[in-house]
Design a protein that fits this description.
DNA-binding
DNA sequence: GCCGGTCAAGGTCTT
DNA sequence: AAGACCTTGACCGGC
């Protein structure tokens, strides 16, 4: 069974990513905005339930400045009940949620300060999911980080940093190939070394290829081994025809997806679609391929 | 008031 | 040294 989902916001509903300028920061404003965002998230999941969509990525902006030093972390206690409630809803309906720190969270940075920032950010993302009460199959997905002109050393540092993470954070982590630095082959190698699941991003793999000669199904199968007893997840998107290389398209290209799907049909897989039109691409592919969940 | 254009946090890589 | 990358919404200037 192949299940598809979408990322971050629903274009038909109020956003769960509301924020404000850091110059206007106050604890009260942070808590109000965060509470509103959590309720907006609940409404998005409700919409998803009505449309039988059970795969969703929660925005990193759910708690404004959630991992910034300006934020005391009081939201972890103040909003415990609201996070728990939305998590109960997700669990009750068999939903799988995830989070994805941005490209600026760099775990393998040689800069100690940036490393500490990354640790805070991973703690933030893990805390949201933990307070929701969802287990470690609901992942926090990160990229490998930078190369710093020395890939072997940067990779070694990445491995070391992952292994030294607090276990509750490490056990929720998955690694994803990016389009500039860590390709699929390198990410898979790190995943095996540190025993973490790997998220294969189909589009990044097209922009920054590896595994020459291997078909998508083979590569997905190799990544699948890293998931052990958990359900495998991959990312899928297309190149925007106008914007720069690596930019996501507005919507999923039906022909491209059909060609891709022909090679993976029959697998057990969660596929996150990354497009500007969000939920619309999920509904579009469902119409095109009714057997998709 | 509304509209459209610009900026924001975060760090790395490329030009 | 400066711009690109990414993201959506906040914010600001001009009507």
């Amino acid at each position: 069974m192949i299940r598809i989902g979408y990322v971050g916001v629903n274009t038909l509903l109020p956003s769960a990513s509301r924020t404000f300028r850091i110059a206007n920061y106050s604890e009260q404003r942070m808590l109000e905005t965060a509470s509103n965002n959590i309720h907006a998230l609940r409404d998005i999941l409700g919409w998803n339930l009505e449309h039988e969509i059970t795969l969703f990525r929660i925005t990193s902006d759910l708690i404004p400045y959630g991992s910034h030093p300006i934020n005391s972390g009081v939201w972890k206690t103040a909003l415990r009940g609201e996070l728990s409630a939305v998590g109960r809803f997700a669990k009750a309906h068999g939903m799988r949620v995830s989070m994805h720190p941005g490209q600026y969270t760099v775990l393998n940075s040689p800069n100690e300060s940036f490393y500490q920032n990354a640790l805070r950010d991973l703690d933030y993302h893990n805390s949201v999911l933990t307070l929701m009460g969802v287990d470690r199959s609901h992942k926090v997905i990160v990229h490998g980080g930078g190369a710093y002109g020395d890939k072997p050393e940067s990779t070694r540092r990445l491995v070391e940093r992952i292994l030294s993470l607090p276990s509750e954070i490490r056990e929720r982590l998955a690694l994803e190939n990016d389009e500039r630095v860590f390709n699929a082959e390198e990410v898979l190698s790190v995943c095996k070394q540190v025993r973490l699941p790997g998220v294969f991003d189909v589009f990044h793999h097209e922009v920054l290829p590896s595994f020459p000669g291997k078909q998508a199904r083979e590569t997905i199968a190799m990544f699948g081994e890293t998931w052990r007893s958990e359900r495998q997840k991959i990312h899928y998107s297309n190149q925007d025809p106008i914007r720069s290389k690596g930019a996501h398209s507005d919507t999923i290209d039906e022909q491209a997806f059909c060609d891709f799907y022909a090679g993976i049909r029959g697998l057990d897989l969660d596929i996150m679609l990354e497009t500007k039109d969000k939920q619309a691409s999920v509904l579009k592919l469902r119409r095109l391929i009714p057997e998709l969940e």
